C-alpha cells in the first residue's frame, strides 16, 4: 500500500536535487500548524489583561470641599492610593523655594503635561489651583505607600527604604529614582476633581 | 526498522544529561521507536485524542480559575463576568464546557473500540481496569465541574447526585451530611467541589501515565486481535502512528470547533443560566448527556437503594469484563455472533441515554427496565455464554497476513470496520 507512494518520492527526489514536493508539504503543514497554535495561544494570553469590569472603574471623582486646609486624604483610583493634599501657604512657599538644580529628578512626572515638563511647583500642583497637590501614593522605588506629613522635607517619608519627598511630592532623598507620579485628572468644578 | 532502533545521543551535552536521566531516551522509545501494529485503524486514534482533551481541559480550567470565585453569592456572577468582561473569557469557558462533552464522546468511542476488539483480554486486564478508573474519575470530575457555575441545574444536580448516597441504610443520611458539610448543598459543598474539581484532573493525568505505561508493557491490541509476531507486523510509532493520530486529532478538533463556535449551548441546559435557588426545583431536571444512560437505570428500578446499586453496578461490571468474556478469540472481527450482540448492546446504551432524557413516566419507565435488564444480561449472561457456544471464524496467522490478504480480497470481514471514520 505504500509502494506506489514510495516510488513517487524517490522519483521526485532524484529529479529535483534536494527539494521535493514532500519538503514543501512539510513546511506548508508546519506553517499552518504554527498559525493555528498562535491563534489558539492569543486568547489565552489576552485573558490575562485587565478585563472590562476593571477598565470600567478607571475614573474616580473626589469632592474637595470635605478636605480642610493642611489635610491630606487618600482615595483609591484603579486600586492604587492617590494622595489629595490641600496644602498650606507655608507648604507651597517651601516647594516654590527649591531650585530645580537641587532636585534629584527635575522632570514634573505630571500625566497632564508634556513628558519633559520641568518639576516646578506650578507643574506639580493643580492647574490654576496651586494649593491642591494630587499624586499617586506609591513610592517610585519599589511600590510602598509613603507616610504623609513626615520626613525632613515635610512631604512624605517611605518606611520601606527611607526615600523622602518634599511638599510638591518630589523625591529629595533616594533610593527612589523619580518624583511621585501626578495622575491624569482635571477640575470638574472648583471643589471637585475627576481622576482618570 | 520497525521500532527496534535505540536512542543514541550524539551531542555531548545530551549524552551528559542522558547518562544522568534518560528522559529523551524514554520519550524516544515510547513515542518514536515504539513498535505499533501496522493495521491500526482510525478507532485507535482516540487514545491520543483523549490525551489532547485532557490537556485542553486542564489548560482552559486553569485559566477559568483565574477569574472564577467559589462562593455561593459570587460564583454565578463570576461565571457571567467571565462570559462578558474577561478578554476571550466566553471562548475559554465554552472550550471548557464543550470540551467536557468532547472528552466523553471520545472516551465512549475509545471504550466501545476496546469492547469490540477485545482489548480488555489477557494480558491487557490491568490496562483495561486503569481505563475504567480513569472513566470513574472523569465522571466525578465532570459532575463537580457542572456544580461550579451555581445555576439551577448545578444546584439541583448536586442535590440529586449527593442524595444518591442517602439510599444506603443506617449510614446514608450521615454520609450525605458529611458530603455536603451541612444540612443541604451550600457554600461548604461548593468550596469542596471546587477544590476536588481542580485536584481530580491531575489524578486522571497520573492514572493516564499508568494507563500508557501498562499499554507499553503489553503492547497495543489491533483490529485482528493477533499479537505482533515479527518485525514485519509493526511499524515505528513515528511517523506512522504520530501522523495518523495527528490527523485524527485535527478532524476531532474540527468537530469540537463546530460545537464551540456554532452551538456552544446545545449540550447544556437553559436552566443553568438561572442562579441557584434552594427553594425552587426546575420542572424538568436531567443530568448532562454523558450520564443519561445511568440516570435511566436509576429511575428504572422502583426501589431507592436498588436504583442506586443498579446505577453503580452498571459501571462496576465493566471492571470484570476481562473475566466475563470467556471467548478464546480476542477481536470481534472474527466473532460473528458477538458482533451482532455488540451492536445490539450499543443500541441499548443509546436507547438508555434517550430514555434518561425523557420524563420518568409510563412507557419510558417500562422501556427503561427492559433495556437495563438487557444491559446487565449482555455482560453477565451473553458474554460468558458466547465464548462457550460461538463458533469463531478463522483467525489470521499474523497481522501481516491479514493486511496483505485483505488487498487480495481474502478477508472482507475486517474491511468494513477498518474504514477511516473519526466522527463520533
Automatic annotation (TrEMBL), chain B:
It is found in: Membrane. Its cofactor is heme; heme b. Residues 13-224 form the Cytochrome b/b6 N-terminal region profile domain. It comes from the Bacteria. The keyword Calcium does not apply. Its main location: membrane. A ubiquinone binds at residue 216. The chain crosses the membrane at residues 42-69, 90-111, 126-148, 155-176, 196-215, 246-263, 305-324, 336-354, 366-389. One of its GO terms (molecular function) is metal ion binding. GO terms for cellular component: respiratory chain complex III. It is a multi-pass membrane protein. Heme b b562 binds at residues 96, 197. PANTHER family: CYTOCHROME B. The main subunits of complex b-c1 are: cytochrome b, cytochrome c1 and the Rieske protein. Belongs to the cytochrome b family. Component of the ubiquinol-cytochrome c reductase complex (complex III or cytochrome b-c1 complex), which is a respiratory chain that generates an electrochemical potential coupled to ATP synthesis. This is Cytochrome b. It comes from Ancylobacter polymorphus.
Amino acid at each position: 500500500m505504500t509502494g506506489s507512494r514510495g516510488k513517487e518520492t524517490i522519483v521526485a527526489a532524484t529529479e529535483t536535487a534536494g527539494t521535493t514536493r514532500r519538503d514543501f508539504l512539510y513546511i506548508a503543514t508546519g506553517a499552518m500548524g504554527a498559525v493555528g497554535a498562535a491563534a489558539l495561544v492569543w486568547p489565552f494570553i489576552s485573558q490575562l489583561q485587565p478585563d472590562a469590569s476593571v477598565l470600567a472603574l478607571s475614573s474616580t471623582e473626589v469632592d474637595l470641599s470635605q478636605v480642610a486646609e493642611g489635610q491630606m486624604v487618600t482615595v483609591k483610583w484603579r486600586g492604587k492610593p492617590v494622595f489629595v493634599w490641600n496644602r498650606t501657604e507655608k507648604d507651597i512657599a517651601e516647594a516654590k523655594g527649591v531650585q530645580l538644580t537641587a532636585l534629584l529628578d527635575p522632570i514634573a512626572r505630571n500625566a497632564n503635561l508634556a513628558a519633559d515638563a520641568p518639576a516646578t511647583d506650578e507643574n506639580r500642583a493643580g492647574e490654576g489651583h496651586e494649593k491642591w497637590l494630587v499624586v499617586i501614593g506609591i513610592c517610585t522605588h519599589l511600590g510602598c505607600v509613603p507616610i504623609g506629613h513626615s520626613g525632613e522635607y515635610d512631604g512624605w517619608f517611605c518606611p520601606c527604604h527611607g526615600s523622602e519627598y518634599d511638599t510638591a511630592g518630589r523625591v529629595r532623598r533616594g533610593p527612589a529614582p523619580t518624583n511621585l507620579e501626578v495622575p491624569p485628572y482635571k477640575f470638574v468644578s472648583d471643589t471637585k476633581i475627576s481622576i482618570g | 526498522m520497525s521500532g527496534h532502533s535505540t536512542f543514541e545521543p550524539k551531542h555531548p551535552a545530551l549524552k551528559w544529561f542522558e547518562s544522568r536521566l534518560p528522559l529523551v531516551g524514554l520519550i524516544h522509545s515510547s513515542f518514536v521507536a515504539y513498535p505499533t501494529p501496522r493495521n491500526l485503524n482510525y478507532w485507535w486514534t482516540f487514545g491520543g485524542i483523549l490525551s489532547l482533551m485532557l490537556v485542553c481541559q486542564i489548560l482552559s480550567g486553569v485559566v477559568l480559575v483565574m477569574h472564577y470565585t467559589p462562593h455561593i453569592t459570587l460564583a454565578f456572577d463570576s461565571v457571567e463576568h467571565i462570559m462578558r468582561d474577561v478578554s476571550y473569557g466566553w471562548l475559554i469557558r465554552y472550550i471548557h464546557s464543550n470540551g467536557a462533552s468532547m472528552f466523553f464522546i471520545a472516551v465512549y468511542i475509545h471504550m466501545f473500540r476496546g469492547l469490540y476488539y477485545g482489548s480488555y483480554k489477557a494480558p491487557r486486564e490491568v490496562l483495561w481496569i486503569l481505563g475504567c478508573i480513569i472513566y470513574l474519575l472523569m465522571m466525578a470530575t465532570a459532575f463537580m465541574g457542572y456544580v461550579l457555575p451555581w445555576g439551577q441545574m448545578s444546584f439541583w444536580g448536586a442535590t440529586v447526585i449527593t442524595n444518591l448516597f442517602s439510599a444506603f441504610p443506617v449510614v446514608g443520611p450521615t454520609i450525605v451530611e458529611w458530603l455536603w458539610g451541612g444540612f443541604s448543598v451550600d457554600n461548604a459543598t461548593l468550596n469542596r467541589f471546587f477544590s476536588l474539581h481542580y485536584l481530580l484532573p491531575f489524578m486522571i493525568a497520573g492514572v493516564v501515565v499508568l494507563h500508557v505505561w501498562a499499554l507499553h508493557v503489553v503492547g497495543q491490541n489491533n483490529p485482528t486481535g493477533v499479537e505482533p509476531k515479527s518485525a514485519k507486523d509493526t511499524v515505528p510509532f513515528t511517523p506512522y502512528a504520530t501522523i495518523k493520530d495527528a490527523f485524527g486529532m485535527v478532524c476531532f478538533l474540527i468537530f469540537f470547533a463546530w460545537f464551540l463556535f456554532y452551538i456552544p449551548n446545545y449540550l447544556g441546559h437553559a436552566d443553568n443560566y438561572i442562579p441557584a435557588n434552594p427553594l425552587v426545583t426546575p420542572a424538568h431536571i436531567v443530568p448532562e448527556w454523558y450520564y443519561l444512560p445511568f440516570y435511566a437505570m436509576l429511575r428504572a428500578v422502583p426501589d431507592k437503594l436498588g436504583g442506586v446499586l443498579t446505577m453503580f453496578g452498571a459501571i462496576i461490571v465493566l471492571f470484570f469484563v476481562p473475566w466475563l468474556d470467556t471467548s478464546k478469540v480476542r477481536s470481534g472481527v472474527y466473532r460473528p455472533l458477538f458482533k451482532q450482540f455488540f451492536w445490539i448492546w450499543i443500541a441499548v446504551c443509546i436507547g438508555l441515554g434517550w430514555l434518561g432524557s425523557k420524563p420518568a413516566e409510563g412507557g419510558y419507565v417500562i422501556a427503561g427496565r427492559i433495556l437495563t435488564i438487557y444491559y446487565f444480561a449482555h455482560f453477565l449472561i451473553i458474554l460468558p455464554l458466547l465464548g462457550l457456544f460461538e463458533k469463531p471464524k478463522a483467525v489470521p496467522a499474523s497481522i501481516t497476513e491479514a493486511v496483505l490478504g485483505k488487498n487480495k480480497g481474502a478477508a472482507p470481514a475486517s474491511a468494513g470496520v477498518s474504514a477511516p471514520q473519526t466522527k463520533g
